[in-house]
Amino acid sequence: MDCEKLIFESREKYGETFSLYVFGQILTIVGKETTHEVLRKDQDFSFREGIKIQIPLHLIFKPATIPEKNDKIVKEHIAGKLKQLISRLQKNIIKAIDLHIGECVEPKIIHVRDPSKTFSEIIAIPIANIIVGEECYNNKEILEAFTDVSLSIIKMLFIPPVLSFIHPWLHQQLVTLPLRFGWNPFSKHKKAIIKHIKPVIKKRLYDKKRLGDAWVAPLDALQCYLDDPEITPDLDPNNVNYDYIASAIGRFIFSTMGTTNLGLTHALYDLAEKKQYRQELYQEAQEINKQYNGNELTSDDIARMVKLDSFVKESLRFSNGPIVGLLHKCISKSYYAFANGYQVPSGRIVYLNFVDTNNNEELQGQNPTEFDAYRHLKRNSSATKLERNFLVFGGGKHACPGRSFVINEIKMFLHKVMLKYDVRTDTEEIGPKRRYLGPFPAPLNVALVFENRKETVN
Predict the structure, then answer these.
(1) Residue 85: how many other CB atoms lie within 10 Å
(2) Using CB atoms within 10 A as the burial measure, which of 56, 106, 291, 362 is most buried?
(3) What are the boundaries of each domain within the chain?
């Protein structure tokens, strides 16, 4: 009922590494000194196997059961070509803001239960454009898939594991039973995705055959699948593995939308609530806006948003993560021995203690439990940099490959919002203490108020 208290008191009583008996099984919690071992020892700890315990993605997005293919596309063709994608991202972020927030001559209130959905609808537009391409991203059913998939799947995290008191296997059977008998939160969206990408794929393959070397391939994730001979043999639209492509796109949606939506939502709430930083961040936005003269932002312009970058990183560190998370499964043959002498048997689930890392003065600097917008600017540490004191994007070989895409999108959104609106909460403050559902942050029960900015941007 009070996960934060449980973890804090256990850490005080038992030390940096300890185990708890929770819902019928023993879980091991590792703190700041041991976290890096779990993240870097790929041969001993598997995040892929660990996440299956919470969310059976291998069943939801079947047959796209090799997430490494998506990771490669993100790393090489999205994050790796971000400079070429900035213009499209920016155009669609502005389009989404105008559509879902619009002109606010009179204050526009985004009510208590709406923010997560509203911002999900906003980021769905630029993300869909990069994944499924220019031809069909703006379709209503496609955008609905990008908005709904992550939210519907994450609900599975909150199924009470009461059967685990008998045996954890029983809870796994309960969670996966509907999936094995045909029900799937992704099924409806999968059909819609296939319906809308089919004509796009047929035209692209036809144009490629007709034009040969003169054909210019679109820059999006969909084209990456079409370039894979295992998925699209002989450039024949009748032989395309549409089922695989749609399922892989579903994985993309789940991984990109959830992280970006949470990060953007919390950063906007922090911007609205923490008044002491607004003017300085706005001045930085103004200066950068003068440099590009109101035209399109470049990747260099975004890189110059150093104060905003630090603000976003602090927001992610401070409010976006669970108390414990990034569970890994020990896959050593018999057991794994940590450097501190503790051992865990093969099959043990290991959680990272975010509270231990985030609240440590040695790692975070002075007053680690207080929000300091420029904490990371003082350290010259960007929001995409992987460090022991920042676990939002994981670490090691399996760190989030799309983190630069996520951070750049959040920064562009906040930059445009600051130039156009004054944003505040409808109460004086969100609250002195964050609420949790188990180890997960509870939704913020505060409305946001948008008004057209009164200052003139020179």
Answers:
(1) 22
(2) 56
(3) 3-452
Distance CA 32, CA 113 (A): 35
402 Rama sector, left if φ>0, alpha if ψ -120 to 50, beta otherwise: alpha
CA atoms within 13 A on the CB side of 123: 30
CA dist., res. 73 & res. 80, Å (int): 9
Contact 126, 108 (CB under 8 A): no
In DSSP notation, 6-67 reads HHHHHHHHH-SEEEEEETTEEEEEE-TTTHHHHHH-TTTEEHHHHHHHH--HHHHTTT---H
What pLDDT is stored for residue 428 in this prediction?
A: 64
Instruction: Return the number of other C-beta atoms located less than 10 Å from residue 320's C-beta.
Output: 17
310 touches 377 (CB < 8 A):
yes
**Residue 345 burial (CB count, 10 A):** 12
Give the max Cα distance, the chain: 71
- Give one word for 108, left, alpha or beta, with left for phi > 0 and alpha for psi -120 to 50: beta
Q: Which two tokens stand for residue 386?
A: 């992987």
Q: What sign has the CA pseudo-torsion 370, 371, 377, 380?
A: positive
What is the rounded distance in angstroms from the CA atom of residue 214 to the CA atom of residue 84? 20
Residues sharing a CB contact under 8 Å with residue 1, sequence separation 6 or more, in sequence order: none
Residue 17, both tokens: 């590494």
| Interval 283-297: pLDDT, tens | 999 999 988 876 789
State how far the Cα of 285 lies from the Cα of 283, in Å rounded to an integer.
Answer: 5
End-to-end CA distance of the chain: 52
User: Token digits for 219?
Assistant: 């820059």
Reported as a single tens digit per residue, the pLDDT across 392-402 is 898 887 788 88
Residues 6+ apart with CB under 8 A from 283: none
Q: Are 375 and 316 in contact (CB under 8 A)?
A: no
422 and 457 in contact (C-beta within 8 Å)?
no
Residue with tokens 């799937």: 184
At 425 the three-state DSSP class reads: strand
In the predicted model, is pLDDT for residue 458 greater than 50? no
Dump pLDDT digits (tens) for 291-349: 887 678 999 999 999 999 999 999 999 875 789 989 999 999 999 999 999 999 999 99
DSSP 3-state percent helix, strand, coil across the chain (nearest 5): 55, 10, 30
Contacts for 155 with CB less than 8 Å, ≥ 6 apart: none
